[in-house]
Amino acid sequence: MAPEDLTTRKKILDAAVRLIFSVTSEELTTRRIAEEAGVNIAAINYHFRSKDELIDQAVEVATAEAFEKGMAYLFAPGREPKARLLDFITGYAYGLMKFPGLTRTAFLTLMRNEKGSTFYGRYMKEMLDKVGQVVAEAGGAAGRNEGDVALMVLSCAILPFLVANTVKDAGGIDYADDAARARYIETMLNRLVR
Length: 194
Description:
Elements: H1 3-22, H2 30-37, H3 41-47, H4 51-74, H5 81-98, H6 100-112, H7 119-137, H8 146-162, H9 164-171, H10 178-192
């Protein structure tokens, strides 16, 4: 590929990543990506076989960036394991709320692939493993497997995002409120991890 082709491809991919972090999946159109990248739609069609391929690659880039940031919290030196878990889950939940477009697109990408072999599926599996390691480091959870606790912890962070209105109406937790979300996460961790 010619250098100018690589530059155009990168511009398109970077534009898609920026939009994934800022818009809903419905707003993430080929036309919107082309406008953001400063290219025409034909350039997108030339560099990517389909919108789905472009979005899959953009989700991969965005997820890798978010994953690296999350691992820095989870394995921060000099901090107790439970405090690291709290920082990680709080940051993860904040990211879910701050970047709903990325989150929805990532989950939709994962759901489209039943085998979980998407990048996001592999990321989720690795994240569960890493959270399980820190749960074990913290002393585990009474009578439960660390992997099961890791799944419960992540599920408790993800579910309120996915059904925020129901959680607010039925459970009285406003997941969009930073302080309420932080209290919920701390309570959940205290119940699941020693």
